[in-house]
Design a protein that fits this description.
Elements (H helix, E strand, L loop, with lengths): L1 H8 L7 H17 L12 H52 L6 H13 L10 E8 L16 E12 L10 E11 L5
Antiparallel strand pairs: 1-2, 2-3
Helix pairs in contact: 1-2, 3-4
Length: 188
C-alpha cells in the first residue's frame, strides 16, 4: 500500500522507487507480526560515547580528589586557627577574673581546655605563655591592681599546624601565634 502511494505521487527519493518499495514491504511485515515500531539501525559512534565518558572521568578525577583534599586541609587550618584564638581569649579571661591571686596555671589550663574542644587538635602541642604587666607593658604587676594603676594579663598561644597531605611545592606547616590582653578585675 505505501508503494502504491509513492508511485502515484511519482516519489523516487534519493535511492529510487525500489528502495521505497523495500521499506514498505518491511513496514507491512512488521505490522503483520505485531511489532509496532522500527528497529533503529546501529550507529557506530554510540559505543564510543561510553569510552569518552571514561576518559573524561579519568582526566577529572585527580583534580577532584586534589580539590577535596585541599579544601579539607584549608578548612582544618581555619578551624585550628580559630581554636588558637579562642584559647588565648579564654585563658586571658580566666586570668583577668581570678579573684584570689593572679596565676598562670589556671589561665594555661583554661586555654588548653578551650583548644581541646576542637576536633583534630592536639592541645598538648600548644605553647601557652601568660604574663602580667602594667599599662606600660614592661613593668611586672605587684600588689592589687586599682583603677588608677591597672594590671594587664596577656595570654599568648603558639601552635604548629601540619597538613594531612604532604603537598609538593607548598609549605606543609603553618605557625599560628595569637595573643589576647585583658585588664584584670579584682573585687574591692
Amino acid at each position: 500500500m505505501p508503494l502504491e502511494r509513492a508511485e502515484k505521487r511519482g516519489y523516487q527519493g534519493r535511492r529510487g522507487a525500489t528502495w521505497v518499495a523495500d521499506c514498505a514491504h518491511r513496514v507491512d511485515t512488521l505490522r503483520s507480526v505485531g511489532q509496532v515500531g522500527f528497529r533503529l539501525p546501529k550507529v557506530p559512534f554510540i559505543g564510543s560515547e561510553r569510552a569518552q565518558s571514561m576518559v573524561e572521568i579519568a582526566l577529572l578525577l585527580p583534580m577532584l580528589v586534589f580539590l577535596i583534599l585541599a579544601g579539607g586541609d584549608l578548612a582544618r587550618a581555619y578551624a585550628l586557627q580559630l581554636a588558637v584564638q579562642n584559647g588565648a581569649r579564654a585563658g586571658a579571661e580566666a586570668a583577668a577574673i581570678d579573684n584570689v591571686q593572679p596565676g598562670t596555671a589556671e589561665a594555661q589550663a583554661r586555654a588548653l581546655d578551650e583548644m581541646g574542644r576542637t576536633p583534630g587538635m592536639n592541645s598538648a602541642n600548644a605553647i601557652v605563655t601568660v604574663t602580667f604587666k602594667k599599662s606600660d607593658g614592661t613593668t611586672d604587676c605587684s600588689g592589687v591592681p586599682t583603677v588608677a594603676d591597672p594590671c594587664w594579663v596577656t595570654v599568648r598561644v603558639q601552635y604548629t599546624f601540619h597538613t594531612v597531605t604532604p603537598w609538593p611545592l607548598i609549605p606543609n606547616t603553618a605557625n599560628f601565634d595569637r595573643s589576647t590582653s585583658m585588664r584584670t578585675i579584682k573585687s574591692p
